[in-house]
Amino acid sequence: MEWRSGRRSSNVEDRRGMGGMRMGGGAMRVGGGIGGLGLVGILVVSWLLGIDPSMIIGAIDGGGPVETRQEQPRQSGAGSGSDEQAEFTRVVLGSTEDVWHELFQADGQTYQEPGLILFTDATQSGCGFAQGATGPFYCPGDRKVYLDLGFFDELSQRFGAPGDFAQAYVIAHEVGHHVQNLLGILPQVHEAQAGADQASANALSVRVELQADCLAGVWANRADRSRGVIEPGDVEEALGAAASVGDDRIMRAAGRRASPESFTHGSSEQRVEWFNRGLESGEVSDCNTFG
After folding, report:
1. Is the pTM of this model over 0.85?
2. Angle at 198 between CA 193 and CA 200, to 5 degrees
3. Range of 123's domain?
4. pLDDT tens readout for residues 100-124
């Protein structure tokens, strides 16, 4: 991906190298009601759902108090991810800003830029306590994307999806959720999920995630039109990333049967299909996963 000459966004807050969260003497504990294995299960579910784990922990634990330690910055260069990765993130976010400003303006609307928080291991978000173990996520409450750059190593090594354009896809997908929020799609879906059974709520979640994949494809198309950012092999990297985080592949990797009724993000095939749809057309109108 040709990114070094791109504009850097000013909406990135770097919290890397700051302290995380502890309870009492240092080991994390939530009200004493959740054991180690239970916490691991919560983190896995949170990652699959793309939400902050504290939202689940709080519901289980009755909203008990959480004690945090004061965050102390480490020396420059410490923390998760390299400075070059942080620069890359700023450029990709800046590119999404340029694309979505243009698309919103063409529709007579004003695009409100999201923030992006880089952190190490854990931090506070507008949706509660955030952990890098859950993967990148978007918080509608404060309109910010949260990213531990260590996830990019996971994407390459654990999920087998290396490359800078694969990383750009991840950022663009989360920004896609911000676009959905601005368009009122996320609030409507959350309202519908509140009164739905689990299978129906999951199906709605899949539609939201596939649409975000498609919107990431729209960004890639428009960014390449304006700046020629896509280099040979980049599309394959993005498609590989989309496939690697399909629910079916993740479930099988965890030794579980892939059951579509429990999908929350969509299958590998679906994620590739919808990203590719946005990439080929560059039109938001082609991203209606609810039709």
Report:
1. no
2. 60
3. 12-287
4. 999 999 999 999 999 999 999 999 9
3-class secondary-structure state, position 21: strand
Decide if 161 contacts 223 (C-beta within 8 A): no
The answer to whether position 281 is within a domain reads yes
Other C-beta atoms closer than 10 Å to the C-beta of 41 total 13
Residue 1 or residue 187, greater confidence: 187
What does the alpha-carbon distance between residue 249 and residue 117 come to, in Å, rounded to a whole number? 28
Is residue 175 assigned to a domain?
yes
The per-residue DSSP string of 91-131 comes to: HHHHHHHHHHHHHHHHTT--PPPPEEEEESSEEEETTEEEE
User: Which ranges in the chain belong to alpha helices (H)?
Assistant: 36-49, 53-61, 83-106, 150-157, 164-182, 185-194, 198-227, 234-244, 247-253, 268-281
Using the structure block, give the residue that is written with the tokens 């299958």.
267
Q: What is the DSSP letter of 9?
A: P
Tally of domains within the chain = 1
More confident residue, 95 or 258: 95
Judge whether 53 lies within some domain. Answer: yes
Cβ atoms within 10 Å of 64's Cβ, excluding its own: 13
